[in-house]
Write a structure and sequence with these properties.
single chain; 272 residues; mainly alpha; 12 helices; 67% helix; globular
């Protein structure tokens, strides 16, 4: 692993090989997205009325794959199809586990940032984002007073800045410093041409951040019909967006079929 988040890329590449059998690869991806939905419900203790919006992160991850088109051949992020989904699963598993530990021992929140951010070499930005989510989970779930919240904020902030810098400075010597807080994300350019490729990730991180508010307003949300209708409407909107924004081109689909036939040495299907 030459840069932070390498474990996600490695496992993403391992799972990508199953797309030699398209149905098998698709089934694995679908299974992982279902796991994301399940962990969303468990990690954030979503009321039944908000279950539909638990699918938003999974749909954003799906869109990040289906909108790629020809760029899937040129993207320089190894294991792209699976790596980000695996990163979110790791993030949600940490959130679920930390939430349960916090309920048993309130003082663990002082040590959690060090433990979580220490996994930065393995998971990159997803470790840092996990620490960000857990900070708000601690504040809202434990209803910490303002003074304690400020102290926690300084602990989480200093840990999130210093530990990644140390890894990049002394271990990942070939990793550009400006990539310190973006390691693990796809290597897209930040310009207007590739801005649409960033949209699923913006939706993903913003949505997960907003879900921490459930701990604060859970009692006001639970059982309210308006929230049920709103969450259902958001789900339908996101599902429609995935369909409309996904890359659909008959030439591209034909090319993929030809490549699959060549890999299988099936000469009868080389020309379609």
């Amino acid at each position: 692993m030459q840069e932070a988040g390498g474990l996600l890329n490695y496992n993403g590449l391992f799972l990508t090989q199953f797309f030699c059998y398209p149905l098998l690869g698709s089934a694995i991806l679908l299974l992982l997205l279902i796991v994301v939905c399940f962990l969303m419900i468990k990690s954030f203790e979503l009321p039944a009325g908000l279950y539909p919006i638990a699918f938003i992160p999974a749909l954003a991850l799906l869109l990040s794959v289906t909108q790629m088109g020809y760029m899937i051949h040129t993207i320089k992020s190894p294991g792209y199809i699976f790596s980000n989904t695996l990163g979110i699963i790791v993030c949600l598993l940490f959130c679920w586990g930390c939430k349960n530990l916090l309920k048993k021992n309130r003082f663990l929140h002082y040590f959690m940032p060090i433990i979580i951010v220490s996994t930065y070499p393995l998971f990159g930005i997803y470790s840092l984002f996990t620490a960000f989510l857990i900070f708000f989970m601690v504040v809202f779930l434990l209803k910490t007073p303002l003074k304690t919240s400020v102290i926690l904020f300084l602990i989480y902030l200093s840990t999130g800045l210093v530990i990644p810098w140390l890894f990049v400075r002394f271990i990942f010597s070939e990793m550009p410093w400006y990539n310190t807080f973006f390691a693990g994300l796809p290597k897209f350019y930040c310009n207007l041409v590739e801005l649409p490729l960033w949209i699923p990730f913006i939706v993903l991180f913003v949505t997960l951040s907003l879900f921490t508010l459930v701990f604060k307003y859970k009692n006001k949300i639970q059982g309210k019909r308006a929230w049920v209708l709103l969450s259902t409407g958001i789900f339908i909107f996101m599902l429609t967006s995935v369909y409309l924004l996904s890359y659909r081109n008959s030439n591209f689909i034909t090319e993929l079929k030809m490549l699959n036939a060549i890999e299988r040495a099936n000469g009868n299907k080389w020309l379609i």
